[in-house]
Design a protein that fits this description.
Lytic murein transglycosylase; single chain; about 45% helix; PGBDSf; mainly alpha; 8 strands; about 450 residues; MltB-like; two-stranded parallel ribbon; PGBD-like_sf; four-stranded antiparallel β-sheet
Length: about 450
Amino acid sequence: MVHRTASDRGYAGRAAGVAIICLGLAACAGTDDITGALSAPPAAYANAAPARPSPVRPQARAEAAAAAPAATASHPDMTPAALARDEANFTRCIAALEPKARAAGVSAAGFRRYTAGLKPDMGIMEKLQTQPEFSRTAGDYVEMLVSETRIRKGREAMAQNAAVFAEVERRYGVDRYVVAAIWGIETNYGSARGSYPVIQATGTLACVGRRKAYFRDEFVAALRIVDRGDIPESHLRGSWAGAFGLTQFMPTAFQRDAVDFDGDGHRNVVDSVADAMGSTAKKLKRGGWQAGRSWGYEVVLPRRFDYLLADKNIRKPMREWAALGIHRPDGRAMPPGDEMAYLLLPAGAKGPAFLMTDNFKAILSYNPADAYALAIGHLADRLRGGGPFVQPWPEQRALSRNERSELQQRLASRGYNVGTPDGAIGAQTRAAVRDYQVAVGLPPDGMASGEVLDSLRGGS
């Protein structure tokens, strides 16, 4: 799917540690997912390793995002009485949206045709309210998504559409392998797109429950898609939250970024690989992708490294990182000395390290979760023939939401500013974790880990 600010990807959500709470073209896992715990609802992901928990495709995370914050049942618009009221008022609510739809370019005849007999799918409310938490580390997440099966299928898909990928890369200057990786991770190359009618799903959410304001725009955008003839209504199916197509666009994201790449007069990201890949590349280009450059590089840190430098706000030329003793594994050459990058430690000080370029930020513009973007970049490299990461992922346990909240509360009780102790690990909590780590002699990587929580518990 595509997104990361409320205006860009869809309605905004919040990251719970590494919990996914964003919506847009490529459901986001959460902007602060360097803490090591990805939370998402259960969903069988086709290429999961048998010995590991089943991974969750990004769109499922977008759906989970709709449930955040926790305890949605307490929201006044999610009580049984409120839901019953909204259901009874559904037809009137949809009718009241006609002026908005007409102003957006939907014809009067089209509005009547697509809304005639439209009924709410109240089962969606259960998904909106429920957010089971299944935590996983960044390492588990990346390894589950970048599987040998997904790599093989991706190479086959690229070979079958070689001319499309070559032209997409030529026109937009975006690495074809990154575009293919998004296709692979979002819908497993088209095999897992969702089956909910998008007009019904967005119409339900526009008139029932606690996200009505946001989904009114999505509903109107969905009507415009079919009214313009871009995608037949019968083909416009996707997730319960409204994302659809080979790379999972929300309707408003489609209106902004979709292109008719195959030249048939329709922007059909559902049935046309060319349109879907071209639209995805356009989004990445708008996100700042620079042609001819990598998304990032695996690197090795020297002993006694200052982990306070592992901060997204600290960007240095590659030559300066090299001067600090950072080098690539296996004697590989460092990138051009003037290329800017920041240091990312997705599993903390004990895991692999990466220097991330502006192209990593472009992937984040599609979905602002570090683990998601890292998986995209790594899958892209594997598709082009690269090998696995050299440095192993450490054995870690991911904190549950309750444990993350406890960690915040314990930090707050010691005078550290963590913001609201809600289990969502953001910039304030990471800064507080760093300060605590410095105080107790732990590597200050800012990671809200089991080690930090155990230390806090031991000091109470």
